[in-house]
Design goal:
Layout (H helix, E strand, L loop, with lengths): L19 H28 L1 H34 L12 H7 L6 H4 L5 H23 L23
Helix pairs in contact: 1-2, 1-3, 1-5, 2-5
Length: 162
């Protein structure tokens, strides 16, 4: 359970706990879940890179912002741990914990247990949107890489011919 305060008798509404460790664990787990499918797709495009270079570049650009969010949240946890802050939940590398913690910001019954759920949801969504935009912007620059294999050491990439 994700309860941070004991149940109170009466009908007083409980305030959500301000626990940066749990909040960061949720952000890290949520981002990890978001990254699973695009990373798998990126790996698959490598198998047929010549025909899928546009898809590969697009997915790669899509991944940049969520990977940055994941990296920052992980570095934050790492720094807090090594600077002496209490680290009560360790998710990195634990798939079952990630699957258990990641949906808590998205489920009504657990969303309000830790402050900042909306901000974490918007951070994940914004990183996906930024990646989508970055992928669309770079997609037009893939054409030179789709050219056939250069012969006799000559490059088919326009910028490499100079």
């Amino acid at each position: 359970m994700d309860r941070t305060r004991p149940r109170c008798a009466g009908r007083r509404a409980r305030r959500p706990a301000h626990d940066p460790v749990k909040a960061n664990a949720r952000l890290t787990s949520g981002t990890a879940v978001v990254l699973l499918v695009p990373l798998a797709a990126e790996g698959i495009t490598i198998l047929r890179i010549r025909g899928l270079i546009s898809v590969h570049v697009f997915i790669g650009m899509l991944l940049v912002p969520p990977v940055l969010v994941k990296t920052c949240s992980t570095v934050y946890r790492f720094a807090r741990y090594y600077l002496g802050a209490a680290m009560t939940l360790h998710v990195l590398g634990h798939l079952l914990d990630t699957a258990r913690v990641a949906p808590r910001d998205w489920l009504r019954r657990t969303r309000r247990n830790v402050t900042g759920a909306g901000l974490r949801q918007w951070t994940i969504a914004a990183s996906l949107l930024a990646g989508l935009l970055l992928g669309l912007l770079v997609l037009g620059r893939v054409a030179p890489w789709q050219a056939s294999v250069p012969s006799a050491g000559r490059s088919s990439i326009p910028s490499a011919r100079r």
